[in-house]
Amino acid sequence: MIWNEEIETMSRQDLEELQLKKLQKTVKQAFDKIPYYNKKYSALEVYPEDIETLKDIEKLPFITKDDLRESYPFGLFAVDIKDIKELHSSSGTTGKPVVSGYTEKDLDTWAETIARGLTMMGIGEEDILQNTHGYGMFTGGFGVHYGSHKVGAAIIPISTGQTRRQIEIMQDFGTTGLIFTPSYGIHLAEVAIEDGIDPKDLNIKAIGFGAEMWTEEIRQKVEDLYGAKAYNIYGLTELMGPGVGIECEAQNGLHIPEDIYYPEIIDPNTQEVLGPNQKGELVLTNLEREGMPVIRFRTKDLTEITYEKCDCGRTHGRISRITGRSDDMIKVKGVAIFPSQIEKALLNAGDVEPHYMIIVTRPETLDKIEIKVEISEDIFFDGVKEMVSIKERIEKSVENETGIRAKITLVEPKSLPRFEGKAKRVIDERDLH
Ligand code: DLL
Fold first, then answer.
1. What pTM does this model have?
2. Atom 1 of ligand 1, nearest CA residue
3. Could you state, in order of their start, the residue ranges of all structural domains in the chain?
């Protein structure tokens, strides 16, 4: 079944006409209502009337996470606060987070994108959907929730954690659909198995998973554990939240609701726009957003896009699974972390050298982060007691800055590698590429 057949199967030509109309409206609204865009576009002498074709979007500058942060909290809103009905913010905790604002209509648009995706997964009004995404500032919980209401499924807003209760509810309520991050989903299954419950014996028929990077092996593992198909869900706070891309029954790329988000792929180094089936960085534009229209956002996520017609009959383009980032952001336990945050935390803690290494592992199913830090020569000779206190100080400082508890290992002065040029501070041993 297709949720919005008219839109989701429309000819490419009609779709592009619709996109152009919406793009023109969005650019005008941003230029007229948001000083950030007005200033930027005026300085480049590019104006809403210069958008005559879809390709003309390339005349507009990109916007980045830093631009969004600098506009904290409401600098990129196009409407008065009286028209904003909900606020979310990114899971990353670098300095100021990115804020996303939604009008009533935006919440409905967001729900529409998820409704299309849930339908792709075969979830509808007969289903009981257990949503393990956090309900809070993270967009995962509420985004899925609104979409589930739209398709008429019975949503269980259990949120993250309470693993044994999750399992009990799956058994007692007869949950048919599950939403999780891959790492939590595997953990959930393993706890069930430990308790003598085979997840395959539960009633699960479809799984939606995303919010972090994963591999085909992980999908295989999730599908084997639950005996159900697992569909990739992609999204980001800046553009709305989950639902920017969702896999259909073909499980061969994530459909972007192209009447709602306009995708481009660029070469992250030259910023040149690439063609279909060429790998690069995904750039996204809101085509249907009142509260906070974001135009040409550099996601830093690496993927490629195809416009070939899908076996499912939908005509909207598909991106491939995200395989990396063009910056050094890592997501640990669902939280976005940049090495610069760790650096700041170390410097705040004092008595350490600015030489460190971040090692992310997934020994079983949950992420672990270890930070190796060089201490100063003086401290090194001061003995164990002093080192324990520094370690605790660093642990606290890292937790304050990132919200994550990390294992701190102090190492001898000058023992970590030195870099010429760009330092490589992160060793991600989770093998997610
Ligand atoms: O993670 C939104 C979301 C919620 C998506 C629930 C899917 C399900 P942020 O916290 O702002 O938003 O993080 C966005 O997470 O730029 C990617 O780097 C990464 N990411 C999200 N989904 C996927 C995915 C939510 N399916 C950032 N595969 C994005 C790989 C993903 N990476």
1. 0.89
2. 211
3. 81-326, 335-428
Q: Give the distance from CA 397 to its chain's centroid.
A: 25
Collapsing DSSP states into helix, strand and coil, what is residue 266?
Answer: strand
Strands 86-89 and 99-102: antiparallel
CA-based nearest residue to 328, from 373, 268, 376, 405: 268
CATH 3.40.50.1220 fits 335-428, yes or no: no
Per CATH, the architecture of 81-326 is what? 3-Layer(aba) Sandwich (3.40)
- Give pLDDT tens digits for 368-416: 999 999 888 877 777 778 888 889 999 999 998 888 899 999 998 888 8
CB proximity list for 165: less than 8 A, separation 6 or greater: 158
What distance in Å separates the CA atoms of residue 152 and residue 208, rounded to the nearest whole number?
A: 17
Do 403 and 342 contact (CB within 8 A), yes or no?
Answer: no
Residue type, 56: D
Ligand 1, CB within 6 Å, residue ranges: 90-91, 133, 139-140, 210-213, 232-237, 241-242, 299, 301, 322, 331, 336
Do residues 169 and 175 touch, judged by C-beta distance below 8 A? yes
Instruction: Give the Å distances, CA to CA, from 415 to 332, 344, 375.
Output: 26, 21, 10
Cis peptide before 35 (omega within 30 of 0): no
* Euclidean distance between CA atoms 420 and 157, whole angstroms: 49
Q: What's the angle, vertex CA 361, arms to CA 360 and CA 366, rounded to 5?
A: 115
pLDDT in tens, 41-60: 999 999 999 999 999 999 99
Q: Do domains 81-326 and 335-428 have the same CATH topology?
A: no
| Sign of the CA dihedral running 37, 27, 62, 432 | positive
Measuring CA to CA, which residue among 192, 214, 196, 213 is closest to residue 204? 192
Going from the Cα of 159 to the center of ligand 1, the distance in angstroms, rounded, reads 17
Q: 344 in helix, strand or coil?
A: helix
